[in-house]
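Fold in tokens:
===
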Amino acid sequence: MSELVKYAILDTDFVSKANIICSNGCMLADEVLRFPHYKFACHLKMMEELNYHNVGAGRWLQTRIETGEIICVDDRAIIESLKEEVGESCFLYYRSFLNEGCNIISNDFYSQYFNDLDTWIEVGNSDKDMDEFLALLQICESSIGHGNSYGEVKAFVLLKYLKMTQESQVIVFCSDDRGARRGFANLSMSPCISLLAVFYKLWRMGTSYEIADGYYQSFVNWCLRRANPQNTVRVWNYTEGTEKLIKTSIQDVLNDIYDGKYEVRKDGDLQMTRR
């Protein structure tokens, strides 16, 4: 029996970093797109963020969308599809997805920027033209700065929409930010894949160590060249009945993955295999 296709949502931070990591002229981002049994998707907001923060990654994304390797979805498409499912309640559902997603950033993020959406719905406007709702949404979003990781919220909205309308599992290739990944995993009950977890998947898929190591050395070099060089990563260890995060040398992680010493948690963190 063939493996079911999963939807895989791409997060801005993941795509940006996966475009930096390369081996023999091939970017890790393209290696990920070759993973079998995944249908890759992103929210249009990611394109906007990449064009602001990483123009090269933005061009890569645009090309992959044009070739059909990645599906790009905007808010209009989400709400129109929801309307086919739940009628005029589509605005309520979208508002609920957005409100929940905002909690990834902070508990008051939604109330800080989107209370006008609540007012619009509560006064009975939900039977009006969709353009009015989308225009109001854009006004609310215009006051959010570029540094607020709002793309993660839109990725969450897309995730909730796909889980509601598609009969397939939805996962997220997402940020190295542990808090953001945990928010995705806990709020959506969907698995996350971090950059380090990609190397675990390469191992499980039977990719040779030599190929994986080419990408991994690029990753290590990038970590060491950062303004605040990183030579360790934090992984979970289970000892004496307790789970705790410990630091381990970044140089050792790929060898340990290929030695079967790690598994991946639902939030995308690596965890030492219990012996």
User: Anything to note?
Assistant: The chain has a mean pLDDT of 90. The chain has two domains: 1-193, 195-265. DSSP finds 14 helices and eleven strands in the chain.
